[in-house]
Design brief:
By secondary structure, the protein is an alpha/beta fold. The protein contains 17 helices and 21 strands. The strands form 5 sheets. Strands 14, 15, 16, 17, 18, 19, 20 and 21 form an 8-stranded mixed beta sheet that branches. A 6-stranded parallel beta sheet has the order 4-3-2-9-1-8, sandwiched between helices. Strands 5-6-7 form a 3-stranded antiparallel beta sheet, with no helix packed on it. A hairpin with an 8-residue loop joins strand 20 and strand 21.
Length: 626
């Protein structure tokens, strides 16, 4: 038999180790791709935006924040549109203060002068207000001229202020995060108002928890036109923090998750969202990174477990897809019912990656295992036997090699009569070609009768019927014996054809001696990492070899070109289907008890009908190992 390297690492523990590596690898890869590869990160964020826009549970308008907006109707009443009429703003602050608001945030950048008297009037109104009033400033990166920065600095001198810069995603320009403090420590306007209201403000950027309105088309915060504030009942504004800002179609509007459901969001409304979140102490419903990583690991492990279930490929693909769709639908419904926003792209990639990687590993492992088995068996077996070996491998394989097992099988040992004469007539290279032709013909016959050629010993062939899948019934054992005998008969007939061809080539004819015995034996692989072969141990294999050696002393022939000697257990299995002649009880070398043996007669090949001669004790000892 050819050497077959033992495939290491096929034990259950090794498989579990590889499964854990695949789980970790798929999870890390999915998480990394989703957070670091721009298109995937954008897709992940967009899914969250869609859930926020269309499935956020409705909530009543926030009780602590209100908006006062300057729209087209407001500007129609103003003397100056840009910069905004400072006198109007001063009066508006007075009206809000009179209504009993809690604090005021002005989302208007005072970076240009108007009439000095109006500018000063607004400054004094803000500075003298009995409630906190926070104006906005611009961080260093804001595109302003030096003149604008100087005026802004002078105007805000002594005044509470915070920046209004928005953190936009560089991929799609969507506002999803808020930066509570600028690089120079300047708080944002919502952060400063929250601090003044006594709320805790984190130092690090945080995701915005977008608050929807009570119904489609209704804003999340009470919103009033600036020109109508003086006419509003004081109770509508009392106790609220009011943000003043523009609400124009082409000014200070930004893309947000809420904007997917209805146009861009005004900057002042974004500030209101952040302020309300800080006042409420809320956090984004999206799972934090640590929990997302845990979910990714779980889905990766689930995918690997599904692949390990051993489902057919089509069923595995269908189950994977259905479960994935179910997870996405379930995640959306969970969020719609007020649960967390579960980012599902990374878990989905981990799920698919775990399934694909584990399935690929199992496929490669299966191919490697099949190669090991085929190296041991399939070069010299029929396809049905090879398929049976592979199908039943779990019954006799341990890891990557056949485990030792005791079973009952039939062993066939054959040798060439007249091989010495052929060796004398041929040079080495033609001799090898001649022998290869002979062995190839014999191997095909063995395979056609569901046998397995285990090895060649010079010109001798060792074959076995009934391994490595142990037989479970006497009927199966007898069938193996019948196959072996039929194989031996066919080998003799094939030699008639080969001899005719060889005579034409000037070569002498040869015959074959075959010994067959049925009985218990131990079968399993022997060898190590560099060389492994399937071997037979026990009296049955030795007896088959002794019977072949004894056949040379038997006077009669099975056919003109063969002597087939079988042991009594084999004879009992084939009696009635094959004609046999008794040879007698023979004391074979190495055996203390005589063995009853029989000569198979192939009537179709023109074998002699006379009884076999009663031989003398076996004069030849075949010491070849099994």
């Amino acid at each position: 038999m050819p050497a077959a390297p033992a495939a290491a690492g096929r034990t259950p523990a090794a498989l579990a180790g590889r499964a854990l590596l695949i789980v970790a690898g798929a999870a890390l890869l999915a998480l990394g791709l989703t957070h670091l590869v721009p298109p995937l990160r954008s897709a992940d964020e967009t899914f969250g935006d869609l859930l926020t826009a269309y499935l956020s549970p409705p909530q009543p308008q926030h009780p602590g924040v209100a908006l006062v907006t300057l729209g087209e109707d407001s500007f129609a009443t103003l003397v100056c549109r840009s910069p905004i009429d400072r006198g109007f703003l001063a009066d508006l602050i007075g009206q809000l203060e009179a209504a009993g608001v809690r604090a005021i945030g002005i989302d208007v950048l005072f970076d240009q002068p108007t009439l000095p008297t109006l500018d000063e009037r607004l400054r004094r109104r803000i500075l003298d207000a009995r409630i906190p009033v926070v104006a906005i400033t611009a961080l260093a990166g804001t595109p302003l001229t030096e003149a604008q920065r100087r005026f802004l600095g002078r105007f805000l001198d002594g005044m509470d202020h915070g920046h209004a810069n928005l953190a936009k995603d560089p991929l799609d320009g969507t506002v999803r995060w808020h930066v509570p403090r600028g690089p120079d420590g300047t708080p944002s306007m919502p952060a400063r108002l929250a601090e003044l209201a006594g709320a805790a403000v984190p130092e690090a950027p945080f995701r915005i928890d977008w608050r929807p309105g009570p119904s489609p088309g209704v804003p999340a915060f009470p919103t009033y036109p600036a020109e109508l504030v003086a006419l509003l009942p004081a109770s509508w504004l009392a106790g609220r923090i009011v943000l003043i800002g523009t609400a124009l179609n082409d000014v200070d509007r930004h893309r947000t998750p809420l904007a997917l459901a209805g146009g861009a969001t005004p900057g002042v409304a974004i500030g209101a969202q952040v302020l309300a979140q800080l006042l409420d102490g809320r956090h984004s419903p999206r799972l934090p990174l640590a929990l997302e990583a845990a979910l990714v690991a779980v889905t990766s492990a689930a995918g690997v477990a599904l692949a390990l279930a051993g489902l057919p490929l089509a069923l595995l693909a269908a189950a994977s897809l259905l479960l994935l769709v179910g997870v996405w639908v379930g995640g959306a419904l969970l969020f719609a019912e007020g649960g967390p926003l579960v980012p599902l792209l990374a878990p989905s990639l981990a799920w698919a990656g775990g399934i694909a990687a584990m399935a690929a590993h199992l496929s490669l492992r299966e191919r490697a295992d099949r190669r090991v088995l085929m190296r041991l068996f399939a070069n010299h077996v029929s396809q049905p036997v090879a398929d049976e070996i592979w199908r039943e491998r779990a019954t006799f394989m341990t890891g990557s090699r056949p485990r030792p097992q005791q079973l009952t099988a039939t062993v066939l040992f054959s040798d060439i009569e007249g091989f010495t004469t052929v060796c004398e007539r041929l040079e080495p290279e033609p001799l090898i070609r001649w022998l290869e032709g002979y062995l190839d013909a014999m191997v095909r016959i063995v395979a056609a009768h569901d046998g397995i050629v285990l090895r060649f010993i010079g010109d001798a062939i060792l074959a076995v019927f009934g391994v490595p899948v142990a037989r479970s019934s006497q009927e199966q054992i007898d069938a193996d014996a019948a196959h072996a005998v039929a194989c031996a008969v066919e080998m003799g007939r094939e030699l008639a054809t080969l001899n005719r061809r060889w005579r034409e080539e000037g070569l002498p004819p040869v015959g074959v001696r075959i010994g067959i015995h049925t009985g218990p034996l131990v079968a399993g692989s022997m060898g190590g990492l560099r060389h492994m072969e399937y071997s037979l141990l026990g009296d049955t294999a030795n007896t088959a070899a002794r019977l072949e050696a004894h056949a040379k002393t038997v006077g009669a022939r099975s056919s003109p070109h063969s002597r087939i000697v079988i042991g009594d257990p084999t004879c009992q299995a084939v009696r009635g289907s094959v004609r046999v002649l008794p040879v007698g009880e023979v004391a074979l070398k190495g055996k203390s008890v005589p063995v009853r043996i029989w000569l198979v007669v192939d009537d179709a090949a023109g074998a002699p009908a006379e009884p076999a001669a009663d031989p003398a004790p076996d004069p030849v000892a075949d010491s070849q190992g099994m």
